[in-house]
Amino acid sequence: GLAAATEIFDAVIIGAGMSGLYQLIRLRELGLKTRVFEAGTGVGGTWYWNRYPGCRFDSESYSYGYSFDKDLLKEWNWTEHFAPQPETERYLNLVADKYDLRRDIRFGARVKAATWDDANGTWTVELEDGSRHRSRYLVTAIGVLSTPTMPGFPGIDDFLGQSFHTGLWPKEEVDFAGKRVAVIGTGASGVQTIQEVAKTAAQLTVFQRTPNWCAPLHNGKIGAEEMEEIRTRYDAIFQRCQETFSCFLHTPDPRNTFDVSAEEREAFLEQLYSERGFGIWVGNFKDMLTDRAANEEVSRFVAKKIRQRVKDPKIAELLIPKNHGFGTRRVPLETRYYEVYNQPNVTLVDTKATTIERITPAGLRTSDAEYEFDIIIYATGFDALRGAFDRIEFRGRDGVTLKEMWKDGATSLVGMLQDGFPNLFTLLGPHNALGNIPRSIEFNVEWVTALLRHMQRNGMTRAEAGPEAVAKWMDHVMDVARGQLSMEVDSWMTGVNINVAGKQKRIVARYTGSAPVYRSWANEIAERGYAGVLLN
Length: 536
Ligand code: NA7
What we know:
Elements: E1 7-14, H1 18-29, E2 34-37, H2 46-49, H3 61-64, H4 70-75, H5 85-98, E3 105-106, E4 111-117, E5 122-127, E6 132-140, E7 162-165, E8 180-184, H6 188-197, E9 203-208, E10 215-216, H7 224-232, H8 234-243, H9 262-274, H10 279-282, H11 292-309, H12 313-319, E11 333-334, H13 337-340, E12 346-350, E13 356-359, E14 363-366, E15 370-372, E16 375-378, H14 387-390, E17 393-395, H15 402-405, E18 424-426, H16 437-457, E19 463-465, H17 467-481, H18 515-527, E20 533-535
This protein binds ligand NA7.
Ligand NA7 is lined by residues 145, 151, 166, 184-190, 209-210, 330, 351, 356, 379-382, 492, 498-499.
């Protein structure tokens, strides 16, 4: 009960990743007494947990950092076009130092439950250590890909070697030299891990169930001079991120695939394939992700590249997706990933043909072979989007849990407010613009901050999404998803995770519209005095 609650805050933020840190900075400006609860022992969220070899983002570094602090932009140097995890973790630690954020963060504090007390107008937040904390406002900054999932193979705990999930990688260095290593999973994390581990492992066996369409990252170092030049362009860079479809520097080409001659098309695709970053995915012909024939054309081009890069034609065919088109799932960006399969120390196992039956003390067993390993790496992904919410018991105004309310798919008002859950602000909550995520993080944090400022000024203490506004927003979410080829494919983007009970069916799990349209919805609500938000 409330009597047991020891501390009362104006606001509690769950998570000290990129969202939580920035939200803390903004809430301090409002004069709110704020406490952040963070499960890890340091700041960084995604960039704290994902320390696996080769981990980096696929956004251009200079488009990824915070844009709100001009001095920070002057002071910080990115050393690669796509910074590796240690650099981004260092960056977020610098932010925490600069703003002296750690004094308001409690580390090693995992939130278990949060219950709204309607009589008092407060949340009671319960940690796994049993402690309870009361707060008027509750902000979730718990990430979109932050709940790692393990496969359901029997015997996982019997393995006598070392095993790791990419999203829960230890801080200690893991040495692969001379080791027999298995990687299970070939999503973005698996691809980055594989290309790194292949450099030193004695033997690397990759267990692939579904191949993904990967494309070259074309990373490179940023020297002092280039960094100075980039710095002069920051305003334009961040301006561009506000204008593009998914907040990357790349935006769809205004032409349709078949508007141009076959030669022109080939030349354009060659150019995209040779350029840095996500251009080939989000800067391609504008009909590439909605028109089947257009998509097949691009898929054919990328398949040709894979066949050129992989020497053994049988392995090349295994690496080419057959049941989904290019870009209909997240495109992993790679650095010599396909060439890894030309190395004598690397083997590819197709687990659709020969399924993994169990993990054994010595390694693993498939339907046709027995393998021995020193290290097994699970690159098996996350219970994405809703997963981070499902593992905390949020109980709202009517005693209903968020998990119950969302059982057939999450709902919200612009991803940030919930009907029946007063004063719960869900940063990057369901159906938010994703893409180059920090841009949406800044937008979300600033939107929530503006709402709280509005409430302060008007003597209000309660905000909740109104049901009609939620219904209208969700209609829009469903509308924009129609006609997207990605909706026909199983992936975390369509809410499918074979390792999680009840998540086998495709749903509209993410917002498929553009970030500018997303922002215009949220901005319009604010501009109309928070129309559709119940305030008092
Ligand atoms: P992903 O993209 O969800 O990839 C997970 C991979 O693990 C994928 O290849 C899965 O195959 C495979 N997997 C998962 N469970 C199993 C089982 N039980 N057996 C065999 N293979 C399995 O996760 P990532 O961490 O790579 O990336 C997540 C996002 O983080 C990424 O999109 C970036 O935006 C950042 P499947 O495809 O399901 O057949």
